Amino acid sequence: VSELETLPRDVSRLAYTQRILEIVGNIRKQKEEITKILSDTKELQKEINSLSGKLDRTFAVTDELVFKDAKKDDAVRKAYKYLAALHENCSQLIQTIEDTGTIMREVRDLEEQ
How many domains does the chain contain in total? Predict the structure, then answer.
């Protein structure tokens, strides 16, 4: 609207039409970029979910195997504690990645306003 007010009044109809087509082209490019970003985001979320599930399944199996032997051997008991700590750290890492993505999205939304 401000651009319209700054344009001279004697600009031809062709100039207005070209400007409108230019704006429409820019909007089309922005939509394509937004679609690509949404696709990338969905792909990353699928990957995070897959890795999170794999982590939980692997931990469950390993936990069961190590826990059986942890009752008998002090070294295995220590290994079990390390396994539990590793699992907790991986879970925290995944949570941090998800939180970072959420914050980045919120920042981008605020910048666009």
Answer: 1
